[in-house]
Amino acid sequence: MTNKNLFSINPEIEAALAAHRAVVALESTVIAHGLPRPQNLETAQRVEQIVSEQGATPATIAVLAGKLWVGLNQPQIEQVANHEDIRKISTRDLAIAVARSWSGATTVAATLWIAHRAGIRVFATGGIGGVHRGSLPDISADLPELSRTPMIVVCSGAKIVLDLPATREWLETYGITVVGYGCDEMPAFYSRRSALPVDVRCDSPAEVMQLFRAQRELGIESALLVAVPVPVEAEVPQEILNKILDDSLRDAENSNIGGRDLTPFLLARMAQRSEGATLRANIALLENNARVAAQIASELSQL
Q1: Which end of the chain is more exposed for a tag (fewer CB within 10 A), N or C?
Q2: Banded model confidence at residue 176, pLDDT cuts 50, 70, 90
Q3: Any catalytic annotation for residue 67?
Q4: pTM given for the model
């Protein structure tokens, strides 16, 4: 049993959950490490606003002074966005963070772990982690967490810097149902197409809710991954995307960047090389995913 004393749940989130109203979990790593300043704080505020406008309650999650915070207030969001040395906390780090009273931004994996235990059923993010490129079996902690956490996760596929075919294969092997939301193939983060199949297409929140309900009735413990394409107007053309990704990968290799530093390095370098096009796409898909997640959460709250 998880010790609930280690959690600090915003009273607004507690009230919404108690009344079975819609709540959407939001990660904090994208604020601390995924976007540059000042766009990180602006996007965090805008995403919460979008969730609220759709009739749901936003619950941004982080670890602050060893407490698992569910539903950050404005000063706390600013702390995560502006602190120079904010840690990046995945599931493996949670016990250390609690024991050592760390403060840090939670990854997709850690946010999933916390949100599920807080009673939240819908989570919105940009892109999930996945299988990394290269010969080593380097797999993001996001994937195992998705395989054992029964939540709806709204994203735009896996981050483009990863090995997308291998990631798709991993999701299939470990029984994670991939839903194409208004699409017939898995989105590729900045791009709407990947040539990788989804398991089923849904065109409305009601259809997603029906799938999730069937999963719960069957006792399936993995997440339902709802893949939403980046808005058309923000998509980065494939030929440009491929070139800047190849150049950015070469930059990382020349600079000996690897491990947990690789993905944020590549995303930042791609934004630079694309003159901000990938950054604009990232912000657009984050906002759109929050909107879709809030609509799904509102539908789910009617059960």
Answers
A1: N
A2: very high
A3: no
A4: 0.94
